[in-house]
Structures are given as structure tokens and as C-alpha cells.
Amino acid sequence: MSQSSGDTLRGLGFALGAYFLWGFLPLYMKMLSHVGAAEVVAHRIIWSAPVAGVLLVLLGRTRDLRTALCNPRMLAMGGLTAFLITVNWGIYVWSIMTDRALDAALGYYINPLFSVALGAIVLGERLSRAQVVAICLAACAVAVLTISAGKVPWVALGLTVSWGIYALCKKQLPIGPNQGFMLEVTILLIPALGYVTWLAFTGHGHFLVGDASTDWLLLGSGFATAIPLILYAHGAKGLRLSTIAVLQYIAPTMIFLVAVFVFGEPFGQAQMIAFPMIWAALIIYSVSMFRQMRSVS
Fold first, then answer.
1. I want to staple 239 with a disulfide (CB 3.0 to 4.6 A). Which of 11, 57, 61, 66 is the partner?
2. Where are the chain's structural domains?
């Protein structure tokens, strides 16, 4: 993520486009509920590749990709981030298909707080008192949901952990965001094609079996995957880190609203307690972050 000296209108437009597309993505994935989550993820990988590839050609950055593919260390790091993003996509798609979009929203709300905790644990970053309070509030919210349901909200935690570790590893990958995404889908392309081919031969696939609407939705999943990521990568270059930090709450808020008011998922007493705790934690965290940035500047 690039941190610029100020916000630009272009950067804001790119970032807003990315977050709104991510916010509406559950509506798209819901239309593929009759297709298995693993098959949808495979098609997201397959059809993302040409979109990302064309962009690299237009930007003249294909040499960076070739360099990465020939570097064992970068290839190994790319393999790790590719694995993590696949896990994240798989949990996310499954959660939408099984009426757990609220869990997905919770996971992406918690993610910034998890990233702060991860930075403290892995990178030795010091936490402010407000950040500690925010993380404790988020942990209490998860405890409320766990006690109420009698089980750990693994969907939310799985999304949080997979994306948080992915973001941490992605920062260590010495390659641009567009090239990094192309590296990931290139690594994943062969297993994705192999899985879709196996499904077709065993008669369990949903692509090219006579349902044109499903075919187009699966084809479009590549654009729905690649375009927001590309928009975000370009938007981050033209925005301050503090602006990105606020905008990142757009997507989970939209997912939350879609889950409750469009999908009609139950919003019970436990959620009425846990979600306000998460929102309060995010407010405390954001205020603390802004104060730290002002003191530095």
C-alpha cells in the first residue's frame, strides 16, 4: 500500500469503486449458490488471469512477472500468498452461499484490529492504550457470539486470520500489486483448471452444461474478482493511509446491510450486542490512529 502526501480525486474514485464493488459482491455470489464454493473459487482464479494479464501487458510490466517466476524465493512467497487468498475466497464464497453473510461482515470488520495485533506480535510494533482497548472489545464481541451460539464463529475468524496474514505476507513480496496478483493467479491457474476439468469429466461441473446464465456468471466472476483489486491498488497510490483506513469500513458495512435487509439473515440479541461492540472498537481504533498520524506530522 502506498502512502501519498495527500488525497487525490482520482485516488478516491478508484478506492470508492473498489469498496463499493466489494460491498455488492455478495449479491453476485448469491446468484451462484447452486454452484459449489470450490468451483466458484476455481473460476474466479481462471477468469481473473486474462484480466490481470491484459492489464500487465498494457502497463508494460510483464518483465516483473517473468522475474518473479524465475526467482525461487519470490515464487515461494507468491505461493504462500496465493494459498492464503484462496482460503479467504473459499470461506467468503461459502459464507454467502450458506446464509452467513453477517459472519463475513463481522470478519472484515475485525480484520483491521487483527492486523494491528498481528503487527504487535510478529513485527514488535507498540500498541497504544486505545488500540489495546479496541482489540479487547473485539475479542469480547467474539466471546459474546461464541457463548450465544455455543461454538466459535469460525467463518468470521477464518476470514479475519486468512486476510490479515495474507496482507502481512503481501507486504513482504518485493513486487508491485498488479504483478503480485498476476503471480498469485498464475500459480493457482493449473490446479484451478485441473479441478474444473475433473468436475467436467465426473459430471459434477456447472460450466458449459446448458445453463447459459450460470456460464456467464462464472465467466464474470473473474472480472468481479480482478477489477476491485486493481481499482484498490491504484486508489491506494493516490490516498493517504488514514483515508484508506476509513474507507475500508465501506465494504463490511454494505455486506452487513445486504445480509440483514436483502438476504433477511437473522440479527438476534447476540449480534445486537456484538456488532455495536465491534463498531465502538473501530471508532476507538480510528481516533487513536488519526491522533498518532497528527503527532507524527
1. 11
2. 9-296
